[in-house]
Amino acid sequence: GTLLEVSALKGKVDRFLKESRELGFTAIEVSDGSTEITKEERAKIIKKSREAGFYVISEVGKKNPILDHDLSISERLELIKSDLAYGSNYVLIEAKEAGKDIGIYDADGNIVEDELEQLSSLGISKLIFEAPLKKQQAELILKFGSQINLGNIASDEVVSLETLRQGLRGDTIILLH
Question: I need a surface site. Which of 30, 38, 101, 138 has the fewest CB within 10 A?
């Protein structure tokens, strides 16, 4: 996502997409987590990426917690709806690797229930929740089921996440009943 953001800032999105295709990439992340991209430009990039044959995952949220807090829940909902309308296959909800004080998480990494409820009111099938902390993963799995789309999982945590999904850990064993 950040590389595409840089290409957008430099007016080189077409070149970025062409080179990405030549390198064999089939998916593109469209975000403005590190930069500012207008809603109109974001929509154009999503459409252009889809027209170029890419699978598109857009991301809503800012990497800087201060800037992320400036995004209201209604602005997040509007971006999600817009991204999906312009062709994004999925929308990723930003949480960074720390999973604290950003997106749907408070400073301790706990889910802000009201925000989660509002985001999930759109339906969760096209949302991917970044959930780097095990307690976040368990809570989301218990709330929405084992097929919830989760992202920002460290590669050495994938097996642990799958045991959560299968109800093979104390946190989620209730799924087996």
Answer: 38
